[in-house]
Amino acid sequence: MNRTAKDPEGVFDEQRRLRLYRVMLELRNFEQRAHELFLENLVRGTSHLATGQEAIAAGYAVAMRADDYTFCTYRGHGHTVARGASMSATMAELLGRANGLMRGKGGSMHLTDVTHGVMGSYAIVGAHLPIAAGAAWSAQARKSGQVAVCFFGDGTTNIGSFHEALNLAAVWKLPVVFVCENNQYMEYTPIRSVTAVEHPAADRAAAYGLEAILVDGNDADLMYETALRTLDKARTGAGPTLVEAVTYRHGGHSRSDPASYRPDAEVRDWLSRDPLPRYRERLLARGVQEMVLREIEDQAQQKVDQATREARDGSPAPVSEIERDVWSDGGSAWRN
Amino acid sequence: MAELTLREAVASAIAQEMERDPMVFFIGEDVAKAGGVFKTTVGLFDRFGPDRVRDTPISEQAIVGAAMGAAMTGLRPIVEIMFSDFLGVCWDMVANEIAKAHFMSGGQVSLPLVIRTANGGGTRFGAQHSQSVENWAMSVPGLKVVAPSSPADVKGLLAAAIRDPDPVVFFEPKSLYGIRGEVPDGEHVDRLGTAKVLRDGADCTIVALGAMVPRAVAAAAELEGDSISATVIDVRSLVPLDTKTILREVTRTGWLITVEENPRLCGWGAEIASIVAQESFDDLDGPIVRITTPHVPLAAADQLEDAAIPSVDRIIATVKAKMRRRQT
Q1: What CATH class does B2-183 carry?
Q2: Inter-chain CB proximity A168 and B241 less than 8 Å
């Protein structure tokens, strides 16, 4: 499936590999905890979990420079935490607490943490591709060397802003990486049944003069290597990249979706390709001690437990928030 | 004072701000080498070069979306949407993304950007190139909405919009691009959220916006001959809205007439009428009157477009009918 990744020695040292494993574990634990808090009715509204898709977020986050920009979708818990956003503040945001990342004003679908380069999570499909292109335009204009990375789902490839953003980014040679997380389903409908080409992103790349890149999105090493290569391309002025990372959503589209439309055999097949156990086996095969992995697993568990405690302990966001921050002066006045 | 056309005032404001702040950039369709389809940005490309003044593809979502991404990461972009009708193509960016980002991010993200656009009728372009859509923007929390009517105000308010830390949708009256007016020499920066009393009268207050302002002024001059002395207010800025000036003048004169180019329902005048009715009802000497385009799409033919948009004659006739009732 993958046409490019190799795994050259020197790129991956053991510490880098352990970091990839740690980040993936943290994201998995976070999503599982978010789901549990939903069942407790503590997380309100909706939420879209990325369980099963962790290798993509981890691969990019570990490869990105601290000042690079991330643009996420409503399925963005993992991408946000992976960049270093406080896990407690992220969890607290899901719970509508005053200690949430955005003090309860955004919720699960709009996670933003500018200090860690997370420039927002966008809940209108496709909207953030042009916005990410704009951040890349800004980086280009300021000659800052920053790269914007924009994650989106397979369903996005059929909306206009996808095509507008890719064309503009290609014409202006913008330092942006568009990463399609093809988890096979646009919400409830198989993407292949509503798309004119087999690979919804990769097969469209040629239309914008870009290389078709299809990569196994459940392989953290391949994702990390792809990230290094595409970030480097953007940073050296060679323009945008469109990556299609093939993966699978372990759960439904959102909390209200049991995903019963998916054939059992398909689900079983993809669960056998779960990026986490797969990566654990690879690490053991490379000689990493079981004890080292256990320690990382314990720490990741403690981290999510602590985040949950801090989120639960947070006070509810105060009602005064509704009239704060409409404008940059902190208020919401529209008349004198 | 130099005399500029309204279209020259647009370029003059952008040049003034680009000169002052290297983070100001300007993009849009045909705006750079061609100087804009309405020739509002002539000379900017030659003066500031292709990095800061750029032509884009016909991709309104990409244009406005890129401005948003750029604004949240350090630039102060100005974008042109050629006709305000085209805002419909990128309304998600304007209403769902740009307007909400500061609030939803808990104040982490600020968007100092300006969306300039040619608004309104008078050019016989038909219903998809002639709408007056400032009320679309006015209805969305998080957008500032400005609509000047003179060259001096275009320059001063556009400069203020560019310096403002929040997103501003800037409606230029396309039928007035050719009018001339005095513009102060040197740096000229006005203040958003301020209406302007253009004419002092004792009998009634006519509140107008954009291309309706010179019509309201002309109507008021003729009404003087009928012994009706009208105050005329140019609203200039819908968000923030200078309700103080409007309430003060309505309280003084006892009558409120709005002149709106937009179709009837939910026009900006309805909001002003509601504020006046709620807060100054006892000062009114008669019903509030709204003069608007009927609630129809605009037709293309000369006589049809002219009949739809409020004219000087219609303003005079409506005000006279009301004020006559006052005297009996």
Answers
A1: alpha beta
A2: no
